[in-house]
Design the sequence.
């Protein structure tokens, strides 16, 4: 080791062995398979979003007069602006997909059961924050979809009894879309929600470390032998490979399908064909099927049931003595979500 | 040699070994803790109220005031014709003439804002209806719901009040405060 190496060693007395000891969380064998690393995937994509988001904020101007033009400038004039914006958009899409898949994996392996109920609820908060980040993100473009999306969302808030009107006014900064609206959505998108996400991710990982990862036994795995491997460096390498593959995937998607820009927002004309982003298709269809207040309150009820599902499941198991009821509920839920998404995509 | 009273004084719980002293001390600790907690809660509560008031838009920015606004003279709009009126506050109304009696009952002025979730409806002449592209709401020419979520909820297109004075048509719509 050279002089510089020694200099660092004296001030940062860490070695690979020390790091392995510091991070020696025993990782269950099933996580050697990369497709079980879906929890780390959204975390990696969140870091991509923070970096690309900071870069985009250098040029983005959050006001109704300038937002659309500044995004046009980022897309068409700024060097590699199209790339940074497209990576930001695709990483958002992949992040939502990864969070949903991660939640499905947790659900179908019943990893939310005692003692992991609180971490499931934190995960639900993370899912909602991710969806809100997606929504507030495309609201900032000030294209037609942005304007009408915000209008519909604020009126959805308005249908909530008692507090709805206040929430709507605080969200918009007025009775309807006005000059305060985009700055509020920008602050939510770029400061409030990411900060909340960082806190929630920290809690999520801390609880995961305290409780350990739920363990799965595969049929092709030998019963005997070690059931865990080290986090450092084995699992870190797996995550690095996942990160590398994601970066390649993001670059390919951003290059082949760069983020476009729609028509400038027009408060007096709702376009003939308007749909939200794909991750809101089920709620969009729900709003078409049912009248306003019922649709909103029933959606809220479904989200509430998802929040407290670990406790509902425990009660069902206690009463019926049947442990696999959750699987049938899950299959029904996935069929409904996928079916509604496909239905809306194809119509 | 010490008296009984002096003995009692000597055994007084300076170090807190006596159970009376412990109780007193824990009572004071709990009592003061409770008050400090209440103080903190009310302090932060007050701070939260200030934040909420800050975020809630002031009433000055709202446009609740309505006034009569000139639309057109009666001669320029014939039976079956319609025109679009946009108020200074941004309200959009579609005004259609149904009769030729010469008063406000000749006209119907419908808001183009869908009562479901606030998108703009547009007129489909081939279907003889107003249609909302957001969630598929539809309304007949009088603004009554015929399909989609507005029909399920019984929501009509909001109507504006009209008046005719000296053969001039006026509409009552929101004005925008300049201060």
Sequence:
């Amino acid at each position: 080791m050279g002089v510089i190496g020694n200099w660092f060693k004296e001030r940062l007395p860490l070695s690979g062995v020390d790091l392995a000891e510091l991070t020696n969380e025993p990782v269950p064998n099933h996580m050697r398979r990369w497709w079980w690393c879906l929890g780390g995937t959204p975390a990696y994509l969140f870091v991509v979003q923070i970096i690309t988001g900071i870069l985009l904020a250098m040029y983005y101007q959050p006001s109704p007069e300038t937002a659309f033009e500044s995004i046009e400038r980022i897309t068409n004039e700024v060097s590699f602006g199209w790339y940074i914006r497209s990576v930001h958009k695709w990483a958002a899409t992949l992040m939502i997909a990864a969070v949903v898949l991660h939640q499905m994996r947790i659900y179908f392996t019943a990893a939310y059961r005692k003692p992991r109920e609180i971490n499931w609820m934190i995960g639900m908060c993370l899912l909602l924050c991710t969806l809100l980040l997606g929504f507030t993100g495309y609201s900032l473009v000030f294209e037609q979809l942005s304007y009408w999306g915000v209008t519909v969302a604020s009126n959805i808030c308005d249908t909530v009894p008692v507090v709805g009107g206040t929430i709507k006014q605080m969200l918009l900064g007025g009775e309807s879309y006005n000059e305060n609206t985009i700055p509020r959505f920008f602050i939510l998108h770029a400061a409030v929600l990411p900060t909340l996400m960082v806190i929630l991710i920290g809690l999520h990982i801390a609880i995961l470390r305290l409780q350990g990862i739920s363990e799965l036994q595969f049929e092709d795995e030998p019963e005997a032998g070690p059931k865990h491997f080290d986090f450092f460096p084995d699992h870190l390498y797996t995550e690095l490979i996942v990160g590398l593959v994601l970066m390649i995937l993001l670059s390919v998607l951003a290059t082949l399908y760069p983020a476009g820009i729609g028509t400038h927002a027009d408060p007096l004309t709702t376009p003939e064909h308007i749909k939200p982003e794909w991750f809101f298709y089920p709620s969009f269809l729900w709003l078409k099927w049912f009248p306003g207040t019922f649709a909103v309150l029933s959606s809220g009820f479904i989200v509430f049931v998802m929040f407290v599902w670990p406790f509902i499941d425990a009660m069902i198991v206690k009463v019926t003595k049947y442990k696999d009821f959750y699987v049938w509920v899950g299959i029904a839920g996935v069929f409904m979500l996928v079916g509604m998404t496909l239905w809306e995509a194809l119509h | 040699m010490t008296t009984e009273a002096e003995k009692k004084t000597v055994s007084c719980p300076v170090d807190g070994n006596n159970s009376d002293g412990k109780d007193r001390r824990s009572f004071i600790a709990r009592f003061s803790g409770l008050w400090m907690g209440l103080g903190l809660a009310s302090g932060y509560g007050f701070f939260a109220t200030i934040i909420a008031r800050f975020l809630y838009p002031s009433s000055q920015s709202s446009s609740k005031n309505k006034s009569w606004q000139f639309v057109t003279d009666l001669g320029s709009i014939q039976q079956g014709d319609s025109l679009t009126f946009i108020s200074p506050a941004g309200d959009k109304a579609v005004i259609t003439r149904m009769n030729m009696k010469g008063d406000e009952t000749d006209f119907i002025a419908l808001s183009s804002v869908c009562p479901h979730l606030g998108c703009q409806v547009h007129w489909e002449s081939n279907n003889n209806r107003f249609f909302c592209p957001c969630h598929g709401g539809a309304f007949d020419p009088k603004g009554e719901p015929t399909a989609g979520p507005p029909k399920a909820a019984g929501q009509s297109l909001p109507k504006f009040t009209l008046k005719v004075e000296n053969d001039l048509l006026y509409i009552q719509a929101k004005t925008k405060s300049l201060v």
The CA atoms of residues 22 and 293 of chain A lie 52 Å apart. Chain A is about 70% helix and 0% strand. The interface with chain B takes residues 148, 151-152, 154-156, 166, 169-170, 172-176, 178, 180, 267-274, 284, 287-293, 295 of chain A (CB under 8 Å).
